[in-house]
Model the fold of this input.
Amino acid sequence: MRTYHQKKIVTIAAWALPFCIVGLLSSGCSTVNQGSNVLKEEMVQPAADAGFIEHPERQSRPADLPFQKVWIKPGFDMKAYQNLVVAPVNTQYVLELDWMHKLSSANVLGDVKKDTAELAEYFHHQVVKHFKEDPLHRFQIIEHPQQNLTSALRLELALIEVNPSQSMLHALSWAGPPGTGTAVGLVNKRAAAFEGRLRDLKTGEVVATFADRDSQDAGPIDLTRLTWYGPAKGIMERWAQQFVQIANRKPGEVIVDPTAFTLRPF
Done:
């Protein structure tokens, strides 16, 4: 039989356990923040080349940038450019994904295409917004470029992979009991990927290419509103922020992902 002292210890331990767990999770998230590029490399595999970048074989994994594949033309100097044009985001490669072709309902497919177009507009808006709000004003965003515009770069982006939101898959009864169903892999990934290139607007020459795949919150509950690509919006915003950070990067500065994964159970 337990003594009063033993019962008191058990009670205190039971009361303190949730706080210990929270502390451990917080510590784990801190570790992710400190070494996110390393963790991302281990936990998020790069997407296969989609074809938007003409010479993907020239790309490599940089240690000082948050993107998984990068190529920069030898001798390219970004400081020589003051203006930036952000082209509409290409969705051709997303619309060619295999899972999308398996949709049996024309109405559902129509909704997917509509949400895809809206997501591309959101990505474009986030990139423009973050450059315009950049306190250093590294680039002047040009909305309607002229052909004779000098010292200007054109940022061209293509979405090549976006996984549907968990809430939408459940709404369509695609995700059955835990661990089953053809959509479980998509739910667990919650990933998005893009390919991009920088082009000298005057000469038309591509001076840099880059690609990345990233994952959104790995939490057990998805409270995203019922759209196909709700979880991807956080990834889009993170990419937009990183574009600005790279544009403002000082020599030798390392740009990392703020988090590879965040734990958000509620």
